[in-house]
Amino acid sequence: MYVMGALRRAVIPVAVAGLVSLPPGCIPGDAGVSFSIVPSCVRVQQATERVFQTAEEWQTFVQENGGMVSDGSPVDFNRFVLAARFDGPGSACTGFTVEDVLVRDGRIEISATRHTWPHACILLLAYPQVVVAVERRGMPVVLRIADARDEVPSQTRRCP
Hints:
Number of domains: 1
Number of strands: 15
Number of helices: 1
Mean pLDDT: 80
Oligomer: single chain
Largest sheet: 5 strands, antiparallel
Distance between the termini: 20 Å
């Protein structure tokens, strides 16, 4: 099953001396896009970001990299594209969260955070990654990945 996402930023206008201020990322014209995180385990050896437009493209990539889609649920590529960040071999104490997905400046921007556990961690090889299904809108899709050393539980599972 996919983890459904929604905008996590509150859009609360604040009036100051007659001016209206919106939180960052919520400027007029930005439009939220629903998204889902696709559970996956793809053992990509080199860090890369990719956008997959078709089921065949996704399946070929997964097979070539010794991976699998964790829950087996198919993605409807007539309605969605997949945007993915694969970190390559890395720590099992690293995971991702997706903060929001917005249409901005003629493209879909996915804002995510790579969380690295700040405390001692077992040395277990894993393949940190995030795969996000977003509505097909005929525009470029870009990932914006921030880094954080924190204890925030990630939305992705470890890929041993």
